[in-house]
Here is the input.
Amino acid sequence: MFLLAASLLLSLRDVQVTKELTEAYNRVRPSVVVLTFGKGKQAAGLVLDGRGLVLCHRNYLTSGDVVVTSSIGRSYMADLVANDPVSGTALLKARNWVEPTSSTLQFSNVSPAPGEAVYAVLPGQVIRAEFVGEAFGLTPENRRYIPLSELRFEHIGQSYGGAPLVNRSGQLIGFVSANLPNENASRGQLSKSVPASQFGATSQGFGPGTLAIAYATAPATLNRAIEAFRKGENTVRYPAIGVVCKDGFGGAEIVSARQGFPAAMAGLVSGDVILEISGKTVANQLDFARILWNSEIGYTHTLRVRSGSVEKTVSVVVAAD
Amino acid sequence: MKRQDEEKLIQIAFGEGTQGLEAALSELKGDKESAEFLANYHSLSTDLKLLRDVPECQLSKERLRDAILASGLEKKTQSPAWLQWTWMPAVAAAIICVGFFLKQGGKSEPRIQFPSEIQASTIKKFPEIKTTPFVKEVDHGSLATNSDGPNILDSMNSLLEEARSQVRIKPERVSRATKVVHTPSFVSKSLHRADHSKIDPEIAQSSAKSLPVAAMNAPASETASAVSMDTTALEARALNTSVTPQPVPVVLISSSSDLESGASQAKEISNPENVLVGG
Here is the structure.
Protein backbone atom coordinates (compact mmCIF):
# COMPACT_ATOMS: atom_id res chain seq x y z
CA MET A 1 0.00 0.00 0.00
CA PHE A 2 2.91 2.29 0.78
CA LEU A 3 4.41 1.64 -2.62
CA LEU A 4 1.09 2.29 -4.20
CA ALA A 5 0.66 5.61 -2.44
CA ALA A 6 4.24 6.66 -3.15
CA SER A 7 3.88 5.80 -6.81
CA LEU A 8 0.68 7.72 -7.04
CA LEU A 9 2.20 10.80 -5.43
CA LEU A 10 5.21 10.55 -7.70
CA SER A 11 3.03 10.43 -10.75
CA LEU A 12 0.93 13.36 -9.62
CA ARG A 13 4.04 15.41 -8.87
CA ASP A 14 5.50 14.69 -12.28
CA VAL A 15 2.29 15.65 -13.97
CA GLN A 16 2.31 18.94 -12.06
CA VAL A 17 5.98 19.60 -12.87
CA THR A 18 5.41 18.90 -16.54
CA LYS A 19 2.38 21.16 -16.55
CA GLU A 20 4.28 24.07 -15.00
CA LEU A 21 7.20 23.62 -17.35
CA THR A 22 4.95 23.53 -20.39
CA GLU A 23 3.07 26.62 -19.26
CA ALA A 24 6.31 28.53 -18.72
CA TYR A 25 7.64 27.45 -22.08
CA ASN A 26 4.43 28.34 -23.90
CA ARG A 27 4.64 31.85 -22.46
CA VAL A 28 8.22 32.46 -23.60
CA ARG A 29 7.95 30.45 -26.80
CA PRO A 30 6.99 33.31 -29.15
CA SER A 31 10.22 35.14 -28.32
CA VAL A 32 12.54 32.13 -28.49
CA VAL A 33 14.77 31.90 -31.53
CA VAL A 34 17.32 29.29 -32.51
CA LEU A 35 20.75 30.65 -33.33
CA THR A 36 22.86 28.60 -35.71
CA PHE A 37 26.53 29.49 -35.71
CA GLY A 38 29.24 28.87 -38.26
CA LYS A 39 30.00 25.23 -37.58
CA GLY A 40 26.42 24.19 -37.03
CA LYS A 41 26.45 24.82 -33.32
CA GLN A 42 23.04 25.88 -32.09
CA ALA A 43 21.88 27.92 -29.15
CA ALA A 44 18.73 29.60 -27.96
CA GLY A 45 18.25 33.34 -27.98
CA LEU A 46 15.38 35.67 -27.19
CA VAL A 47 13.89 38.45 -29.29
CA LEU A 48 14.42 41.72 -27.44
CA ASP A 49 12.03 43.83 -29.47
CA GLY A 50 10.29 44.24 -32.79
CA ARG A 51 13.41 45.59 -34.50
CA GLY A 52 14.92 42.14 -34.71
CA LEU A 53 17.33 42.58 -31.81
CA VAL A 54 18.14 39.20 -30.32
CA LEU A 55 19.65 38.68 -26.90
CA CYS A 56 21.94 35.71 -26.29
CA HIS A 57 24.93 34.70 -24.19
CA ARG A 58 28.33 35.78 -25.41
CA ASN A 59 29.80 32.31 -24.84
CA TYR A 60 28.14 31.28 -28.08
CA LEU A 61 29.85 33.88 -30.19
CA THR A 62 32.23 32.59 -32.78
CA SER A 63 33.62 34.09 -35.90
CA GLY A 64 31.48 33.41 -38.91
CA ASP A 65 27.91 33.90 -39.87
CA VAL A 66 24.93 33.35 -37.65
CA VAL A 67 21.40 32.51 -38.65
CA VAL A 68 18.42 33.40 -36.49
CA THR A 69 15.40 31.13 -36.87
CA SER A 70 12.22 32.50 -35.32
CA SER A 71 9.53 30.54 -33.52
CA ILE A 72 7.41 30.48 -36.65
CA GLY A 73 10.24 29.09 -38.73
CA ARG A 74 11.56 32.11 -40.59
CA SER A 75 15.32 32.44 -40.90
CA TYR A 76 17.39 35.61 -40.95
CA MET A 77 21.06 36.39 -41.19
CA ALA A 78 22.24 38.34 -38.15
CA ASP A 79 25.06 40.67 -37.18
CA LEU A 80 26.68 41.28 -33.81
CA VAL A 81 25.68 44.61 -32.36
CA ALA A 82 26.94 44.57 -28.77
CA ASN A 83 28.89 42.35 -26.44
CA ASP A 84 28.98 42.94 -22.70
CA PRO A 85 31.61 40.91 -20.82
CA VAL A 86 30.23 41.81 -17.40
CA SER A 87 26.69 40.54 -17.81
CA GLY A 88 27.84 37.97 -20.36
CA THR A 89 25.19 39.03 -22.84
CA ALA A 90 25.49 39.73 -26.53
CA LEU A 91 23.10 41.52 -28.83
CA LEU A 92 22.46 40.41 -32.40
CA LYS A 93 20.49 42.21 -35.09
CA ALA A 94 18.56 40.08 -37.54
CA ARG A 95 18.46 41.50 -41.02
CA ASN A 96 15.09 42.25 -42.63
CA TRP A 97 13.29 41.11 -39.52
CA VAL A 98 9.55 40.68 -40.09
CA GLU A 99 7.89 39.03 -37.13
CA PRO A 100 4.74 39.69 -35.07
CA THR A 101 5.21 42.02 -32.14
CA SER A 102 3.93 39.31 -29.80
CA SER A 103 7.37 37.77 -30.02
CA THR A 104 8.85 40.54 -27.89
CA LEU A 105 10.68 39.34 -24.81
CA GLN A 106 9.19 39.68 -21.33
CA PHE A 107 11.80 40.44 -18.69
CA SER A 108 11.57 40.23 -14.90
CA ASN A 109 13.77 42.37 -12.72
CA VAL A 110 12.95 40.28 -9.64
CA SER A 111 14.75 37.14 -8.53
CA PRO A 112 12.59 34.09 -7.85
CA ALA A 113 12.06 32.91 -4.29
CA PRO A 114 14.58 30.32 -3.09
CA GLY A 115 13.36 26.88 -4.03
CA GLU A 116 11.26 28.12 -6.93
CA ALA A 117 11.45 26.35 -10.25
CA VAL A 118 13.13 28.09 -13.16
CA TYR A 119 13.65 26.86 -16.70
CA ALA A 120 16.64 26.92 -19.02
CA VAL A 121 15.72 27.20 -22.67
CA LEU A 122 17.84 25.16 -25.04
CA PRO A 123 17.34 24.75 -28.79
CA GLY A 124 14.25 22.58 -29.00
CA GLN A 125 14.23 21.76 -25.32
CA VAL A 126 13.53 23.20 -21.91
CA ILE A 127 15.10 21.85 -18.74
CA ARG A 128 14.05 22.52 -15.21
CA ALA A 129 16.25 23.96 -12.49
CA GLU A 130 15.82 25.18 -8.96
CA PHE A 131 16.68 28.70 -7.87
CA VAL A 132 18.76 28.43 -4.72
CA GLY A 133 19.59 32.04 -3.92
CA GLU A 134 21.90 34.87 -4.76
CA ALA A 135 25.67 34.62 -4.98
CA PHE A 136 28.48 37.19 -4.99
CA GLY A 137 30.06 36.83 -8.41
CA LEU A 138 33.40 38.15 -9.59
CA THR A 139 34.22 38.54 -13.25
CA PRO A 140 37.45 36.98 -14.52
CA GLU A 141 38.78 40.05 -16.27
CA ASN A 142 38.69 42.74 -13.65
CA ARG A 143 37.27 41.17 -10.52
CA ARG A 144 34.16 43.26 -10.81
CA TYR A 145 31.27 42.29 -8.60
CA ILE A 146 28.17 40.99 -10.33
CA PRO A 147 25.13 39.54 -8.60
CA LEU A 148 24.57 35.92 -9.62
CA SER A 149 21.71 33.50 -9.24
CA GLU A 150 22.68 30.11 -7.91
CA LEU A 151 20.87 27.19 -9.51
CA ARG A 152 20.63 23.45 -9.27
CA PHE A 153 20.21 21.42 -12.39
CA GLU A 154 19.01 17.87 -12.36
CA HIS A 155 20.18 17.11 -15.85
CA ILE A 156 23.89 16.69 -15.50
CA GLY A 157 25.40 16.17 -18.89
CA GLN A 158 23.16 18.72 -20.54
CA SER A 159 24.94 21.51 -22.34
CA TYR A 160 23.05 24.31 -20.66
CA GLY A 161 25.85 26.87 -20.65
CA GLY A 162 24.61 30.21 -21.92
CA ALA A 163 20.97 29.11 -21.98
CA PRO A 164 18.35 31.79 -21.32
CA LEU A 165 16.71 31.29 -17.95
CA VAL A 166 13.02 32.02 -17.48
CA ASN A 167 10.72 31.96 -14.48
CA ARG A 168 7.33 30.28 -14.18
CA SER A 169 5.71 33.19 -15.94
CA GLY A 170 8.02 32.76 -18.90
CA GLN A 171 9.90 35.99 -18.14
CA LEU A 172 13.64 36.15 -18.74
CA ILE A 173 15.61 36.34 -15.48
CA GLY A 174 19.15 35.63 -16.68
CA PHE A 175 21.52 33.50 -18.69
CA VAL A 176 23.23 30.40 -17.32
CA SER A 177 26.81 31.62 -17.31
CA ALA A 178 28.92 29.31 -15.14
CA ASN A 179 28.88 26.15 -13.12
CA LEU A 180 31.01 24.36 -10.60
CA PRO A 181 33.15 21.84 -12.47
CA ASN A 182 32.33 18.20 -12.16
CA GLU A 183 35.40 16.52 -10.70
CA ASN A 184 34.74 13.46 -12.79
CA ALA A 185 34.75 15.38 -16.03
CA SER A 186 38.51 15.14 -16.32
CA ARG A 187 38.25 11.37 -16.13
CA GLY A 188 35.80 11.07 -18.94
CA GLN A 189 32.89 10.30 -16.66
CA LEU A 190 30.66 13.10 -17.68
CA SER A 191 27.48 11.42 -16.63
CA LYS A 192 28.53 10.89 -13.05
CA SER A 193 28.36 13.51 -10.41
CA VAL A 194 27.15 13.98 -6.89
CA PRO A 195 24.11 11.87 -6.01
CA ALA A 196 21.09 14.01 -5.38
CA SER A 197 20.66 12.37 -1.99
CA GLN A 198 23.71 14.23 -0.76
CA PHE A 199 22.01 17.52 -1.43
CA GLY A 200 19.20 16.72 0.92
CA ALA A 201 15.58 17.31 0.18
CA THR A 202 14.77 19.84 -2.45
CA SER A 203 11.50 21.59 -2.80
CA GLN A 204 11.36 20.56 -6.42
CA GLY A 205 11.77 16.93 -5.60
CA PHE A 206 14.88 16.48 -7.68
CA GLY A 207 16.62 13.19 -7.72
CA PRO A 208 17.39 10.42 -7.29
CA GLY A 209 19.79 11.26 -10.09
CA THR A 210 22.62 13.75 -9.94
CA LEU A 211 22.61 17.49 -9.54
CA ALA A 212 24.82 20.22 -10.90
CA ILE A 213 25.39 23.64 -9.39
CA ALA A 214 25.29 26.47 -11.87
CA TYR A 215 25.24 30.24 -11.76
CA ALA A 216 23.21 32.57 -13.90
CA THR A 217 23.35 36.26 -14.49
CA ALA A 218 21.07 37.78 -11.87
CA PRO A 219 18.10 39.87 -13.01
CA ALA A 220 19.75 42.98 -11.54
CA THR A 221 22.80 42.41 -13.71
CA LEU A 222 20.86 41.58 -16.82
CA ASN A 223 18.61 44.58 -16.33
CA ARG A 224 21.50 46.98 -16.81
CA ALA A 225 22.44 45.36 -20.10
CA ILE A 226 18.88 45.21 -21.40
CA GLU A 227 18.20 48.82 -20.49
CA ALA A 228 21.31 49.91 -22.33
CA PHE A 229 20.49 47.76 -25.37
CA ARG A 230 16.94 49.04 -25.54
CA LYS A 231 18.26 52.59 -25.49
CA GLY A 232 20.43 51.77 -28.46
CA GLU A 233 23.66 51.84 -26.49
CA ASN A 234 26.14 49.23 -27.60
CA THR A 235 28.28 49.53 -24.48
CA VAL A 236 26.94 48.79 -21.04
CA ARG A 237 28.33 51.09 -18.39
CA TYR A 238 28.87 50.03 -14.83
CA PRO A 239 29.64 52.23 -11.81
CA ALA A 240 33.27 52.44 -10.69
CA ILE A 241 35.60 54.69 -8.75
CA GLY A 242 38.77 52.94 -9.97
CA VAL A 243 40.11 50.94 -7.06
CA VAL A 244 40.97 47.35 -6.24
CA CYS A 245 40.23 46.48 -2.61
CA LYS A 246 40.83 43.70 -0.16
CA ASP A 247 39.42 43.10 3.29
CA GLY A 248 40.65 45.83 5.60
CA PHE A 249 39.17 44.19 8.71
CA GLY A 250 36.64 46.87 9.48
CA GLY A 251 36.65 48.38 6.02
CA ALA A 252 37.78 47.93 2.42
CA GLU A 253 41.52 48.40 2.06
CA ILE A 254 42.63 49.87 -1.22
CA VAL A 255 45.27 47.74 -2.92
CA SER A 256 45.58 49.94 -5.95
CA ALA A 257 43.94 53.09 -7.25
CA ARG A 258 43.54 53.57 -10.95
CA GLN A 259 45.01 56.78 -12.21
CA GLY A 260 42.52 59.17 -13.70
CA PHE A 261 39.56 57.65 -11.89
CA PRO A 262 37.65 59.34 -9.06
CA ALA A 263 39.36 57.56 -6.17
CA ALA A 264 42.87 58.50 -7.24
CA MET A 265 41.71 61.99 -8.12
CA ALA A 266 40.32 62.34 -4.59
CA GLY A 267 43.72 61.45 -3.19
CA LEU A 268 43.06 57.89 -2.17
CA VAL A 269 46.10 55.66 -2.29
CA SER A 270 47.08 52.08 -1.59
CA GLY A 271 46.70 51.24 2.08
CA ASP A 272 43.79 53.57 2.70
CA VAL A 273 40.80 51.85 4.22
CA ILE A 274 37.29 52.86 3.17
CA LEU A 275 35.12 52.77 6.31
CA GLU A 276 31.89 54.32 5.11
CA ILE A 277 30.20 55.27 1.86
CA SER A 278 27.52 57.94 2.08
CA GLY A 279 26.63 56.93 5.62
CA LYS A 280 26.62 53.20 4.90
CA THR A 281 29.12 51.20 6.92
CA VAL A 282 31.63 49.26 4.85
CA ALA A 283 32.59 46.15 6.78
CA ASN A 284 34.80 44.70 4.08
CA GLN A 285 35.55 44.80 0.39
CA LEU A 286 32.37 42.85 -0.42
CA ASP A 287 30.25 45.57 1.18
CA PHE A 288 32.18 48.15 -0.80
CA ALA A 289 31.46 46.30 -4.04
CA ARG A 290 27.77 45.91 -3.29
CA ILE A 291 27.29 49.57 -2.41
CA LEU A 292 29.16 50.65 -5.48
CA TRP A 293 27.15 48.32 -7.70
CA ASN A 294 23.92 49.89 -6.56
CA SER A 295 25.21 53.41 -7.16
CA GLU A 296 24.12 55.55 -10.04
CA ILE A 297 26.77 56.75 -12.41
CA GLY A 298 27.40 60.42 -11.72
CA TYR A 299 26.31 60.24 -8.10
CA THR A 300 28.64 61.90 -5.59
CA HIS A 301 29.54 59.64 -2.69
CA THR A 302 31.04 60.83 0.57
CA LEU A 303 33.70 58.40 1.72
CA ARG A 304 35.03 58.14 5.25
CA VAL A 305 38.54 56.83 4.89
CA ARG A 306 41.27 55.82 7.34
CA SER A 307 44.65 56.75 6.01
CA GLY A 308 47.34 55.52 8.38
CA SER A 309 46.26 56.73 11.80
CA VAL A 310 44.19 59.56 10.40
CA GLU A 311 40.57 59.48 9.36
CA LYS A 312 39.39 61.73 6.57
CA THR A 313 36.33 62.34 4.46
CA VAL A 314 36.52 62.65 0.70
CA SER A 315 33.96 63.06 -2.06
CA VAL A 316 34.07 60.94 -5.19
CA VAL A 317 31.81 61.02 -8.22
CA VAL A 318 30.89 57.58 -9.46
CA ALA A 319 32.32 57.10 -12.92
CA ALA A 320 31.43 54.63 -15.63
CA ASP A 321 33.64 51.73 -16.55
CA MET B 1 -46.30 -39.43 29.42
CA LYS B 2 -43.43 -40.17 31.69
CA ARG B 3 -39.88 -40.66 30.58
CA GLN B 4 -39.93 -44.12 32.03
CA ASP B 5 -42.98 -45.02 29.99
CA GLU B 6 -41.32 -43.71 26.82
CA GLU B 7 -38.31 -45.96 27.29
CA LYS B 8 -40.58 -48.90 27.91
CA LEU B 9 -42.52 -48.17 24.71
CA ILE B 10 -39.27 -47.82 22.72
CA GLN B 11 -38.13 -51.19 23.99
CA ILE B 12 -41.46 -52.70 22.94
CA ALA B 13 -41.25 -51.05 19.51
CA PHE B 14 -37.76 -52.51 18.90
CA GLY B 15 -38.86 -55.94 20.22
CA GLU B 16 -36.73 -55.80 23.29
CA GLY B 17 -39.50 -55.60 25.85
CA THR B 18 -41.01 -58.49 27.73
CA GLN B 19 -44.43 -57.58 26.40
CA GLY B 20 -45.49 -58.07 22.76
CA LEU B 21 -46.51 -55.19 20.48
CA GLU B 22 -50.12 -56.18 20.09
CA ALA B 23 -50.52 -56.67 23.81
CA ALA B 24 -49.05 -53.29 24.50
CA LEU B 25 -51.29 -51.61 21.92
CA SER B 26 -54.36 -53.19 23.36
CA GLU B 27 -53.36 -51.92 26.77
CA LEU B 28 -52.93 -48.41 25.40
CA LYS B 29 -56.30 -48.12 23.70
CA GLY B 30 -57.29 -45.38 26.01
CA ASP B 31 -54.02 -43.53 25.74
CA LYS B 32 -53.96 -42.22 22.21
CA GLU B 33 -50.71 -40.28 22.62
CA SER B 34 -48.76 -43.28 23.87
CA ALA B 35 -50.23 -45.50 21.17
CA GLU B 36 -49.12 -43.05 18.47
CA PHE B 37 -45.64 -42.82 20.03
CA LEU B 38 -45.34 -46.59 20.03
CA ALA B 39 -46.57 -46.87 16.43
CA ASN B 40 -43.96 -44.29 15.22
CA TYR B 41 -41.10 -46.07 16.88
CA HIS B 42 -42.29 -49.39 15.61
CA SER B 43 -42.37 -47.95 12.11
CA LEU B 44 -38.81 -46.63 12.59
CA SER B 45 -37.68 -50.05 13.76
CA THR B 46 -39.23 -51.69 10.74
CA ASP B 47 -37.51 -49.23 8.35
CA LEU B 48 -34.12 -49.77 9.96
CA LYS B 49 -34.47 -53.48 9.52
CA LEU B 50 -35.07 -52.90 5.83
CA LEU B 51 -31.64 -51.16 5.38
CA ARG B 52 -28.90 -53.24 3.75
CA ASP B 53 -26.17 -54.42 5.93
CA VAL B 54 -22.90 -52.50 5.40
CA PRO B 55 -20.06 -54.88 4.68
CA GLU B 56 -17.55 -54.81 7.42
CA CYS B 57 -14.73 -54.17 5.02
CA GLN B 58 -16.32 -50.94 4.00
CA LEU B 59 -16.06 -49.61 7.47
CA SER B 60 -12.27 -49.98 7.66
CA LYS B 61 -9.93 -46.95 7.87
CA GLU B 62 -7.74 -48.33 5.12
CA ARG B 63 -10.61 -48.44 2.69
CA LEU B 64 -11.57 -44.93 3.54
CA ARG B 65 -7.98 -43.72 3.02
CA ASP B 66 -7.71 -45.52 -0.32
CA ALA B 67 -10.95 -44.00 -1.44
CA ILE B 68 -9.74 -40.54 -0.52
CA LEU B 69 -6.42 -41.03 -2.24
CA ALA B 70 -8.08 -42.40 -5.34
CA SER B 71 -10.67 -39.71 -5.81
CA GLY B 72 -8.94 -36.81 -4.06
CA LEU B 73 -10.35 -34.15 -1.89
CA GLU B 74 -12.83 -31.76 -3.22
CA LYS B 75 -11.03 -28.77 -4.70
CA LYS B 76 -11.57 -25.43 -3.02
CA THR B 77 -13.00 -22.77 -5.21
CA GLN B 78 -11.07 -20.08 -3.28
CA SER B 79 -7.64 -19.11 -4.69
CA PRO B 80 -4.53 -19.80 -2.59
CA ALA B 81 -3.50 -17.25 -0.01
CA TRP B 82 -0.32 -16.27 -1.79
CA LEU B 83 -2.30 -15.45 -4.89
CA GLN B 84 -4.50 -13.05 -3.04
CA TRP B 85 -1.59 -10.66 -2.43
CA THR B 86 0.10 -10.75 -5.79
CA TRP B 87 -2.13 -8.07 -7.26
CA MET B 88 -0.75 -5.40 -4.93
CA PRO B 89 2.90 -5.42 -6.05
CA ALA B 90 1.68 -5.90 -9.59
CA VAL B 91 -0.48 -2.80 -9.37
CA ALA B 92 2.32 -0.90 -7.63
CA ALA B 93 4.76 -1.87 -10.38
CA ALA B 94 2.26 -0.83 -13.01
CA ILE B 95 1.80 2.59 -11.36
CA ILE B 96 5.54 3.05 -11.08
CA CYS B 97 5.81 2.30 -14.78
CA VAL B 98 3.10 4.84 -15.54
CA GLY B 99 4.80 7.38 -13.28
CA PHE B 100 8.12 6.76 -14.99
CA PHE B 101 6.51 7.12 -18.36
CA LEU B 102 4.94 10.40 -17.39
CA LYS B 103 8.21 11.62 -15.99
CA GLN B 104 10.00 10.77 -19.18
CA GLY B 105 7.24 12.49 -21.05
CA GLY B 106 7.82 15.61 -18.98
CA LYS B 107 11.49 15.60 -19.70
CA SER B 108 11.06 15.28 -23.40
CA GLU B 109 9.49 18.73 -23.30
CA PRO B 110 7.91 20.61 -26.13
CA ARG B 111 10.25 20.94 -29.01
CA ILE B 112 10.84 23.99 -31.09
CA GLN B 113 10.03 23.49 -34.72
CA PHE B 114 12.34 25.10 -37.18
CA PRO B 115 13.02 24.54 -40.85
CA SER B 116 15.03 21.51 -41.68
CA GLU B 117 17.15 23.45 -44.08
CA ILE B 118 18.36 26.94 -43.40
CA GLN B 119 19.32 29.09 -46.32
CA ALA B 120 22.48 31.04 -45.64
CA SER B 121 23.46 32.59 -48.90
CA THR B 122 25.82 35.24 -47.66
CA ILE B 123 28.54 34.94 -45.13
CA LYS B 124 29.54 37.88 -43.05
CA LYS B 125 32.21 37.75 -40.42
CA PHE B 126 31.59 39.22 -37.06
CA PRO B 127 33.50 42.34 -36.30
CA GLU B 128 36.29 41.60 -33.94
CA ILE B 129 35.00 41.45 -30.38
CA LYS B 130 36.75 43.98 -28.26
CA THR B 131 36.57 43.94 -24.53
CA THR B 132 38.14 46.43 -22.22
CA PRO B 133 39.34 44.64 -19.12
CA PHE B 134 39.84 47.02 -16.31
CA VAL B 135 43.14 45.54 -15.22
CA LYS B 136 44.67 45.55 -18.67
CA GLU B 137 43.81 49.17 -19.24
CA VAL B 138 45.55 50.38 -16.14
CA ASP B 139 48.30 52.83 -16.79
CA HIS B 140 51.24 50.92 -15.39
CA GLY B 141 53.26 53.98 -14.64
CA SER B 142 50.56 55.73 -12.72
CA LEU B 143 49.58 53.20 -10.09
CA ALA B 144 49.36 54.59 -6.66
CA THR B 145 51.25 51.68 -5.26
CA ASN B 146 54.95 51.07 -4.84
CA SER B 147 56.33 52.59 -7.99
CA ASP B 148 59.72 50.98 -7.52
CA GLY B 149 58.36 47.49 -7.76
CA PRO B 150 56.62 45.82 -10.68
CA ASN B 151 52.98 46.59 -11.28
CA ILE B 152 50.75 45.05 -8.65
CA LEU B 153 47.94 44.29 -11.06
CA ASP B 154 50.25 42.55 -13.50
CA SER B 155 51.58 40.54 -10.64
CA MET B 156 48.09 39.69 -9.57
CA ASN B 157 47.16 38.62 -13.06
CA SER B 158 50.21 36.42 -13.46
CA LEU B 159 49.55 34.98 -10.06
CA LEU B 160 45.96 34.20 -10.95
CA GLU B 161 47.03 32.63 -14.23
CA GLU B 162 49.52 30.51 -12.36
CA ALA B 163 46.85 29.48 -9.93
CA ARG B 164 44.49 28.63 -12.75
CA SER B 165 47.13 26.42 -14.28
CA GLN B 166 47.41 24.66 -10.94
CA VAL B 167 43.72 24.00 -11.05
CA ARG B 168 43.95 22.61 -14.54
CA ILE B 169 46.81 20.34 -13.61
CA LYS B 170 45.04 18.80 -10.67
CA PRO B 171 41.35 19.03 -11.36
CA GLU B 172 40.57 16.01 -9.23
CA ARG B 173 41.50 17.93 -6.13
CA VAL B 174 38.57 20.22 -6.58
CA SER B 175 35.93 18.34 -4.72
CA ARG B 176 32.60 18.70 -6.42
CA ALA B 177 31.00 16.67 -3.69
CA THR B 178 31.42 19.42 -1.20
CA LYS B 179 28.97 21.76 -2.84
CA VAL B 180 25.90 21.30 -0.75
CA VAL B 181 23.09 23.76 -0.43
CA HIS B 182 20.29 23.88 2.12
CA THR B 183 21.07 20.41 3.23
CA PRO B 184 19.25 19.28 6.35
CA SER B 185 21.12 18.51 9.50
CA PHE B 186 20.94 14.81 8.85
CA VAL B 187 23.30 15.23 5.93
CA SER B 188 25.14 12.02 5.30
CA LYS B 189 28.28 11.41 7.24
CA SER B 190 30.01 10.54 4.02
CA LEU B 191 29.84 14.20 3.21
CA HIS B 192 31.87 14.97 6.28
CA ARG B 193 34.34 12.37 5.24
CA ALA B 194 34.45 13.87 1.76
CA ASP B 195 37.79 14.85 0.40
CA HIS B 196 38.65 18.06 2.18
CA SER B 197 41.68 18.51 0.04
CA LYS B 198 42.03 21.73 -1.77
CA ILE B 199 44.58 23.32 -3.93
CA ASP B 200 47.43 23.29 -1.55
CA PRO B 201 47.98 26.78 -0.19
CA GLU B 202 51.66 26.00 -0.13
CA ILE B 203 51.62 25.67 -3.88
CA ALA B 204 50.11 29.09 -4.23
CA GLN B 205 52.38 30.50 -1.56
CA SER B 206 55.47 29.10 -3.20
CA SER B 207 54.28 30.53 -6.48
CA ALA B 208 53.75 33.82 -4.82
CA LYS B 209 57.23 33.83 -3.38
CA SER B 210 58.61 34.22 -6.85
CA LEU B 211 56.57 37.35 -7.31
CA PRO B 212 57.57 40.87 -6.46
CA VAL B 213 57.19 42.25 -2.99
CA ALA B 214 54.36 44.49 -4.12
CA ALA B 215 52.24 41.50 -4.86
CA MET B 216 52.99 39.71 -1.66
CA ASN B 217 50.81 41.89 0.51
CA ALA B 218 47.51 40.45 -0.52
CA PRO B 219 47.28 38.54 -3.75
CA ALA B 220 49.32 35.54 -2.64
CA SER B 221 47.01 34.59 0.16
CA GLU B 222 44.07 35.46 -1.95
CA THR B 223 45.20 33.16 -4.67
CA ALA B 224 45.57 30.36 -2.24
CA SER B 225 41.97 30.68 -1.26
CA ALA B 226 40.55 31.79 -4.55
CA VAL B 227 41.55 28.67 -6.40
CA SER B 228 40.55 26.31 -3.69
CA MET B 229 37.24 24.63 -3.09
CA ASP B 230 37.49 24.71 0.62
CA THR B 231 34.87 22.55 2.22
CA THR B 232 34.69 24.41 5.48
CA ALA B 233 32.38 27.18 4.44
CA LEU B 234 30.33 24.91 2.27
CA GLU B 235 29.89 22.36 4.99
CA ALA B 236 28.91 25.11 7.35
CA ARG B 237 26.16 25.91 4.90
CA ALA B 238 25.34 22.28 4.48
CA LEU B 239 25.01 21.59 8.15
CA ASN B 240 22.73 24.50 8.74
CA THR B 241 19.15 24.35 7.70
CA SER B 242 17.71 27.02 5.53
CA VAL B 243 16.17 28.61 8.61
CA THR B 244 19.47 30.25 9.50
CA PRO B 245 20.42 32.98 7.05
CA GLN B 246 23.57 31.95 5.29
CA PRO B 247 26.32 34.24 4.01
CA VAL B 248 26.19 34.74 0.29
CA PRO B 249 28.87 32.60 -1.36
CA VAL B 250 31.63 34.35 -3.29
CA VAL B 251 31.99 32.84 -6.74
CA LEU B 252 34.89 33.54 -9.05
CA ILE B 253 33.96 33.00 -12.67
CA SER B 254 36.76 31.60 -14.75
CA SER B 255 37.38 32.45 -18.36
CA SER B 256 37.71 28.76 -19.20
CA SER B 257 34.65 26.73 -20.09
CA ASP B 258 33.34 23.59 -18.48
CA LEU B 259 33.55 20.65 -20.86
CA GLU B 260 30.27 19.20 -19.82
CA SER B 261 27.90 22.12 -19.70
CA GLY B 262 29.58 24.61 -22.01
CA ALA B 263 29.32 27.24 -19.29
CA SER B 264 32.29 29.02 -17.74
CA GLN B 265 33.88 27.26 -14.82
CA ALA B 266 33.10 28.71 -11.43
CA LYS B 267 35.02 28.44 -8.20
CA GLU B 268 33.62 29.09 -4.78
CA ILE B 269 35.96 31.03 -2.57
CA SER B 270 36.11 29.87 0.99
CA ASN B 271 37.93 32.83 2.51
CA PRO B 272 36.27 35.97 1.21
CA GLU B 273 38.51 38.13 3.38
CA ASN B 274 41.36 37.48 0.97
CA VAL B 275 39.41 38.23 -2.17
CA LEU B 276 40.39 41.21 -4.27
CA VAL B 277 37.44 43.15 -5.62
CA GLY B 278 37.59 45.79 -8.29
CA GLY B 279 35.26 48.67 -8.69
Chain B touches chain A through 97 residues (CB under 8 Å). Confidence is low (pLDDT under 50) at residues 105-150, 166-245 of chain B. The first strand of chain B starts at residue 250 and ends at 257. The beta strands of chain B are 250-257, 264-269, 277-278.
